[in-house]
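STRUCTURE:
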């Protein structure tokens, strides 16, 4: 135990020292390191794939579920995508040093805000090894040091990626301790990390509800939580049904194991008899199970002659299916009488992640944008776009479903704060 905690304390001190230097490193030097990371991801691809294969073999033997195995998987295509996202981050504007709201007061003082790094950012995450790279490069570009704690199921993959990142930082001349991975699997380590408020300025948990709750309840420093995505798509009475079918199908099936995948489909009663068989046929080809309320079940059970509608497997929904993040080819389905009912359902069961409406009614679209309380609200588009890279951020350290200090995909600016800058010429405050 002492050896484990000493490892964390030593890396914490190194991160604190690195953060002081990173805050003043030039944009050119940071970009050089980030581009080197992208290059090395491709050049050392075989090293990464071997490590990932070892993780997947161990995880399969331990009975890890299909959703988590999919999150764990790395392939040449996914590595190429990671490298591409890293290069995008290098091309983004550096937020550090940006001046905000500079103005001159009546007394002659010039006052404004300057964007500065947060300091040391800790991330605790599960399964997805690409998170190691995403958080590392965003922290580097925003001038923050990073302490990373991945899950045991991705231990080999994370270690390989962390070596590549550290080597690139060293080659570029960034300070030692800029990005560090805690490799020990000791669970006591997380509790210790959450007490290091004098070292760590922000902690970001990414994973299941239990991990996020534990971090939120035990951290002594600021926490940004999110990632639990109970996402709805509402098909309105005026929707173009072919467009709606494509959007809903994509939102559920493109990657069902990610937090922005559709979990509940809401359909207006006036279009449900036409739309539900359409989406059932589409989803049936993808292997989606539909958990239906009585109205949806009745529509899909059969036509007027009693013949069953071809398509996805169906079963009756239970109360537990509303507000559930499935992370699988399963969707809850409910027929609603109005936009009001759809919004009420979302308000009751949503997690504040991503919500969508499919409609040709401009007023309904605006109302949905105004009243759906979520980090990302869509009109006529798939919720699978809620992603830092898709939003033009290059990557993300997480998706915040809280309202302070950031909301939605967190990129470079969300990893900074500001300080007030005041320039005087001898002013003193009157007594």
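SEQUENCE:
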């Amino acid at each position: 135990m002492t050896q484990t905690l000493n490892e964390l304390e030593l890396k914490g001190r190194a991160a604190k020292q690195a953060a002081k230097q990173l805050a003043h490193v030039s944009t050119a030097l940071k970009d050089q390191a980030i581009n080197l990371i992208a290059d090395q991801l491709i050049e050392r691809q075989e090293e990464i794939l071997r490590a990932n294969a070892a993780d997947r073999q161990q995880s399969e033997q331990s009975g890890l579920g299909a959703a988590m195995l999919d999150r764990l998987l790395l392939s040449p295509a996914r590595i190429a995508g990671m490298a591409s996202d890293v290069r995008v981050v290098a091309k983004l504007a550096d937020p550090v040093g940006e001046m905000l709201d500079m103005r001159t007061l009546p007394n002659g003082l010039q006052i404004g805000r300057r964007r500065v790094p947060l300091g040391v950012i800790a991330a605790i995450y599960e399964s997805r090894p690409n998170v190691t790279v995403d958080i590392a490069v965003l922290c580097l570009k925003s001038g923050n040091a990073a302490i990373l704690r991945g899950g045991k199921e991705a231990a080999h993959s994370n270690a390989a990626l962390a070596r590549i990142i550290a080597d690139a930082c060293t080659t570029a001349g960034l300070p030692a301790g800029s990005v560090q991975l805690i490799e020990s699997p000791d669970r006591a380590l997380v509790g210790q990390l959450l007490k290091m408020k004098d070292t760590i300025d922000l902690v970001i948990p990414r994973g299941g509800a239990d991990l996020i709750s534990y971090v939120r309840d035990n951290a002594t420093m600021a926490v940004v939580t999110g990632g639990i995505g109970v996402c709805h798509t509402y098909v309105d009475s005026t929707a173009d049904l072919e467009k709606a079918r494509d959007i809903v199908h994509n939102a559920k099936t493109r990657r069902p194991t990610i937090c922005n995948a559709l979990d509940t489909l809401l359909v207006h009663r006036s279009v449900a008899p036409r739309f539900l068989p359409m989406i059932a046929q589409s989803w049936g080809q993808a292997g989606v199970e539909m958990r239906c309320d009585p109205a949806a079940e009745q529509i899909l059970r059969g036509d007027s002659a009693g013949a069953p509608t071809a398509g996805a497997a169906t079963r009756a929904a239970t109360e537990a299916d509303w507000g559930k993040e499935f992370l699988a080819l399963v969707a809850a389905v409910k027929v609603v009488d109005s936009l009001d009912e759809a919004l009420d359902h979302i308000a009751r069961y949503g997690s504040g992640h991503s919500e969508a409406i499919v409609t040709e009614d401009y007023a309904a679209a605006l109302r949905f944008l105004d009243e759906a309380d979520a980090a990302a609200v869509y009109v006529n588009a798939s919720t699978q776009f809620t992603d830092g890279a898709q939003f033009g951020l290059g990557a993300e350290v997480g998706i915040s479903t809280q309202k302070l200090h950031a909301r939605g995909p967190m990129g470079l600016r969300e990893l900074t704060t500001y300080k007030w800058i005041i320039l005087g010429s001898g002013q003193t405050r009157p007594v």
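REMARK: The radius of gyration is 24 Å.
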